[in-house]
């Protein structure tokens, strides 16, 4: 007797018409024609059953704060930074918790069940750290939340940042963060990378740098990150987020850089929505869009995971906790429109992100925790094209969100009475 039996589902790896049985919060059987009864049977109807979505780069301390204390009228990075500086002294513990919990409600409805959030440690009160540690515990039954101790004003540029970062780690924050390109000099940036990697090595933690988030092709801290990763034996535990300067670097230098990143097993985390919005602001035309070289990174064997970064905060007034929107934008701006590339974009919001965050108990596979989402689409490419409706979201074998299919009713003489965009999937041959 299974708890749930999902019949006639398609999986991201191309298997079609399979049955997925869930018992005790785990996937028990995945095959065609699974026999047995279940407390609940779900007919997937040939739709995609996917592992849940993952956001490996977010700022939950700022989310849903749009308009506080005022709107970012220019929409620029610099005004967003200024706004955050104005908002930080006004933050309260309860307000940060409430906004974070509201965001997590939205995330669940979108099938987003694992999030890595950077939290600013340059406020001496560490108010946001305390609040998000609390949130992490509250949402544990339905969302995995990793926290990054992020010295947003610079480890050395902010006089108390290092002390506060160490305090945050002592409070149970999971990952060491940094922002080397925001230090006063290139030398200070490199020095901050060394120090932060040493802290991570001493404590056995992962590292995630906001790295080279600039249009300056000479911002090359990622090579220092790669070198320190190898020196300290941190391979596979370090991420370089954004990496937008790579968009502007010359090809010869990039040909040297990519093998260094591959050797260090660096995880690359572009943030397509935000990178193309905030970068290139000093250009007239041609105008750079700023997203890093995703196809080239993938070709080098580097793990690429897409993050959302922001949602209705001082830096970005849009967003909806929708990782399919993130993948959709990446496909367009990265010109990733081959069949293989579009599937790689889907991997970047699922399995690649799980690898970047070190999540081992992940995936639609027998014995794994039954965390998944049923989508109103046939396959990953259709899911990205449609930003497909999340029909059901499962957490440890329980349905925690349900959404009605998106169906339009038509009143056109001689035409069908209903339209389901998922019915427009191409049929090869």
UniProtKB/TrEMBL annotation:
Q: Which Gene3D superfamilies match?
A: Metal-dependent hydrolases, Urease, subunit C, domain 1
The UniProt keywords, alphabetically, are: Hydrolase, Metal-binding
The record's section on Pfam families has:
Amidohydro_3
GO biological process assignments: cytosine catabolic process
Is the keyword Chaperone in the record?
no
* UniProt GO MF annotations: cytosine deaminase activity; isoguanine deaminase activity; metal ion binding
Name the CDD domains on file. Answer: Bact_CD
- Amidohydrolase domain: residues covered: 40-399
Report the domain of life of the source organism. Answer: Bacteria
List all membrane-crossing ranges: none
> Which NCBIfam families does this entry report, sorted A to Z?
PRK07572.1
Q: What is this protein called?
A: Amidohydrolase family protein
The opening ranks of the lineage are:
Bacteria, Pseudomonadati, Pseudomonadota, Alphaproteobacteria, Hyphomicrobiales
């Amino acid at each position: 007797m299974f708890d749930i039996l999902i019949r006639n589902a398609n999986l991201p790896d191309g298997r079609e018409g399979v049955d997925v049985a869930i018992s005790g919060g785990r996937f028990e059987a995945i095959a065609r024609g699974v026999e047995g009864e279940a407390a609940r049977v779900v007919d997937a109807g040939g739709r995609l059953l996917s592992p849940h979505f993952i956001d490996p780069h977010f700022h939950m301390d700022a989310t849903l704060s749009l308009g506080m204390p005022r709107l970012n009228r220019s929409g620029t990075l610099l005004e967003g930074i200024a706004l955050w500086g104005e908002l930080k002294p006004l933050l309260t513990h309860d307000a940060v918790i409430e906004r974070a919990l509201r965001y997590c409600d939205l995330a669940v409805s979108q099938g987003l069940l694992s999030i890595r959030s950077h939290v600013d440690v340059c406020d001496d009160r560490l108010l946001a750290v305390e609040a998000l540690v609390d949130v992490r515990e509250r949402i544990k039954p339905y969302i995995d939340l990793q926290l990054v101790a992020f010295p947003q004003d610079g480890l050395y540029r902010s006089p108390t940042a290092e002390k506060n970062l160490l305090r945050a780690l002592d409070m149970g924050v999971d990952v060491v963060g940094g922002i080397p390109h925001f230090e006063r000099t290139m030398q200070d940036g490199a020095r901050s990378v060394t120090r932060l990697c040493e802290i991570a090595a001493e404590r056995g933690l992962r590292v995630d740098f906001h790295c080279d988030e600039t249009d300056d092709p000479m911002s090359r801290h990622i090579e220092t990150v790669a070198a320190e990763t190898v020196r300290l034996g941190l391979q596979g535990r370090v991420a370089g987020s954004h990496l937008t300067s790579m968009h502007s670097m010359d090809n010869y230098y990039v040909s040297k850089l990519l093998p260094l990143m591959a050797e260090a097993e660096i995880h690359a985390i572009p943030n397509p929505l935000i990178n193309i919005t905030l970068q290139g602001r000093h250009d007239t035309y041609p105008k750079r869009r700023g997203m890093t070289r995703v196809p080239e990174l993938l070709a080098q064997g580097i793990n690429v995971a897409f993050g959302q970064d922001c949602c209705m905060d001082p830096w970005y007034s849009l967003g909806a906790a929708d990782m399919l929107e993130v993948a959709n934008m990446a496909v367009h701006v990265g010109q990733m429109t081959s069949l293989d590339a579009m599937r790689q974009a889907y991997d970047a919001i699922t399995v690649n992100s799980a690898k970047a965050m070190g999540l081992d108990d992940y995936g639609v596979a027998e014995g794994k925790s039954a965390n998944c989402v049923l989508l109103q689409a046939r396959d990953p490419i259709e899911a990205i094209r449609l930003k497909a409706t999340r029909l059901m979201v499962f957490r440890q074998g329980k349905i925690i969100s349900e959404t009605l299919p998106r169906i339009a009713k038509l009143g056109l003489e001689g035409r069908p009475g209903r339209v389901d965009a998922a019915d427009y999937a191409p049929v090869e041959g």
